Amino acid sequence: MKFATRINSYYRTGEKNIDRVFDQFQHVGLTHVDLNYPEHVVGIPAEEMKDKLDAHALKLNGTALRFRSDFINGDLGNQDPTLAGEALKLCYEACDYCRTCGGDTVTIWLGHDGFDYSFQIDYTRVFDNLVKAFQAVCDYAPDLHISIEYKPYEERSYAYIDTMGLTGMILNAVDRENLGVTLDYCHMLMKHENPAMATDIFGRAGKLYGIHLNDGYGVMDDGLMIGMATPVKTLEMLFYLKKYAFDHAIYFDTFPIIEDAEGECAHNLAMMKLMNDSLESVGQEKIQSVIDANDALAAAALVRELFCAMGR
Ligand SMILES: [Mn+2]
């Protein structure tokens, strides 16, 4: 498995120096990097970033759009065509930067496309504008994976692309080979989705382009350490990632605030290994047979077996 983690966790203390962060990534055993665009690349041309990555034996997983100040009333779906056009241009730039650095995935989280009040937006206008915008990005960079990361709320009270269901509708309407989805575990818990369910459905469709792993209690985007709140759900999600041979980097979208970022990442890596070893020890076939039996008590016995298999 390939792993990446959140650069901003390492920017919390100490100098905001990308070389220092890459040093620490290499040291803890990460293989990949996700860069927020533009915030992590300001002042660093793509060729120079590629050299920095190479020097640390790291690969770019991809770039992730961050729409900031100008876009508080909407990103790609902004009602103002000038602002929507600027958001689209930012996506094109993120594609170019990603490609030059050797990455293959551009993740788009539309944090400001949504609403706070009833009667505030025209839902179908936003839907149509988003479909056109995603078609434009997909056609601009047909060699890259363009991936929608959905989140139910925050920044807005209601996000527009808020669920696996709405994301699936957008994928169908956009109808492009290179458009897929990034599943963020906490975002799914916030919407009372089961992470494994979307992993199964988008995984079978070949549309799983990114995984943001973390943990939480469902109300907020807690960004807790892997496996610390809902480990059974994490195990189930991992089962499906293995089933569909997910081979992109898994990105730890966790927010160590009090904890040391490197120690926190080391836990995440260790927990992934523990869970993966447990799944391998019990075996995909056995787990699939339990699912096929559609029996809650058999599922409970399987969970006990997976727990017993940990660290064996
Ligand atoms: Mn995320």
List the helices and strands and how they pair.
Layout lengths: L2 E3 L1 H5 L6 H11 L3 E6 L8 H10 L3 E7 L15 H20 L4 E4 L5 E2 L7 H18 L4 E5 L8 E2 L4 H11 L4 E6 H6 L4 H10 L3 E6 L17 H13 L6 E3 L8 H22 L1 H10 L2 H14 L3
Parallel strand pairs: 1-10, 2-3, 3-4, 4-6, 6-8, 8-9, 9-10
Antiparallel strand pairs: 5-7
Bound molecules: manganese (II) ion.
The site of manganese (II) ion has 4 residues, from loops.
What features would you describe in this structure?
- By secondary structure, the chain is of the alpha/beta class.
- It has one domain: Divalent-metal-dependent TIM barrel enzymes (TIM Barrel, Alpha-Beta Barrel), CATH 3.20.20.
- It has 12 helices and 10 strands.
- The strands form 2 sheets. An 8-stranded parallel sheet has the order 1-10-9-8-6-4-3-2. Strands 5-7 form a two-stranded antiparallel sheet.
- Strand 2, helix 3 and strand 3 form a beta-alpha-beta unit.
- The longest helix is centred in the C-terminal third of the chain and has 22 residues.
- The chain is globular.
- Under CATH, the homologous superfamily reads Divalent-metal-dependent TIM barrel enzymes
Q: For the largest beta sheet, what order do the strands appear in spatially?
A: 1-10-9-8-6-4-3-2
| Major β-sheet annotation | 8 strands, parallel
Order of helices and strands: EHHEHEHEEHEEHEHHEHEHHH
- Strand-residue proportion: 5-15%
CATH class: Alpha Beta
Bound molecules: manganese (II) ion
The outline comes out as globular
Count of individual beta strands: 10
Q: What helical percentage do the residues reach?
A: 40-55%
The total tally of domains equals: 1
User: Alpha-carbon distance between the termini?
Assistant: 20 Å
Runs with pLDDT <50, length 5+?
none
Helix/strand-derived category reads alpha/beta
The number of helical elements comes to: 12
CATH fold naming: TIM Barrel
